[in-house]
Amino acid sequence: MDKRVLLIGSQRSFMVNAIAKGLSGDGYEVVQCDFSKESIEAVENKPELYVLYLGDIDITDPEKSGIEPLKYLDETIDKQRFFLYEVGNTDELEFASKFLSKIKVTERFLRPLDVKELADQLDMVVQSNAMGEDQKKKILVVDDDGTMLRMIKTWLSVKYRVYMASSGKIALNFLQSNAVDLVLLDYMMPQMGGPEVLLEIRKDEKLKNLPVMFLTSKSDKESVVSVASLKPAKYLLKTMPKAKLLGSIDEFFFGPIR
Which of 35, 39, 57, 214 is a good FRET partner for 257, with 20 to 30 A between their CA atoms? Predict the structure, then answer.
């Protein structure tokens, strides 16, 4: 992946130009376009990194609020492969989430923006993609909640190669012909719950040593004790802050971050 970024926002905006200058100083080629569907569509050879600046939209006036480009990005991110970063204040980010789903956004930054922090996040994607898909650790996420699946995939795809399964049966079938380095497994699912899936994995000679982490909303002691004999690698709560959840997975693969 080249160090190129599409910066979406009014080119007359002081903050947009400050972001462009900061990213350029960090070695990025910055392609700029206005905050409109037509301007975004008109960009040729689009980068894989998008930065969306929300500070110039009028959230009090539906006619001027920029709903159309938000809806356009929400649709196209499912068809095109790009990482999307939003910059705005709390109200602007909340307004945008009504039309551009939060689970499709790689990261959200509050204003005032530390451009160096944004550049560091972009660098992480560039460095990860330089490895090539075959070199990345592979993770299978298993959850019957489609929203949770998409959110976890969005978070993890920055560093990892991510596969999704919406049921235990689909996951077990997938694992028979696809090698992964880790399974993130929902505890409670209909028909075949997480503990039952892990039991089947442990009974399979080929899969028995596969690392599995439970990713669940259940935090009671009984749930943890009941699966201890199946030796899950970790027990992660869905209510964990994003940074803590990702940090736990990074630590599993790469050790403590100093």
Answer: 214
167 close to 192: Cβ distance less than 8 angstroms? yes
Indicate if the pLDDT at residue 62 is higher than 80.
Answer: no
Sheet with 161-165, edge to edge strand ranges? 161-165, 138-142, 182-186, 212-216, 234-237
Cα(143)–Cα(156) distance, integer angstroms: 15
The CATH number that domain 4-130 falls under is 3.40.50.2300
Architecture of domain 133-254: 3-Layer(aba) Sandwich (3.40)
What global pTM score does this model have? 0.84
Cα distance between residue 212 and residue 185, in whole Å: 7
Strand partners, 84: 50
Helix (H) or strand (E) holding 4: strand 4-8
**CA distances, 9 to each of 33, 40, 96 (Å):** 6, 10, 14
List, by residue range, all CATH 3.40.50.2300 domains of the chain.
4-130, 133-254
Mean predicted lDDT score pLDDT of the chain: 92
pLDDT grade for 129, boundaries at 50, 70 and 90:
confident
Residue pair 56/10 in contact (Cβ under 8 Å)? The answer is: yes
Write out pLDDT tens, residues 8-28. Answer: 999 999 999 999 999 999 999
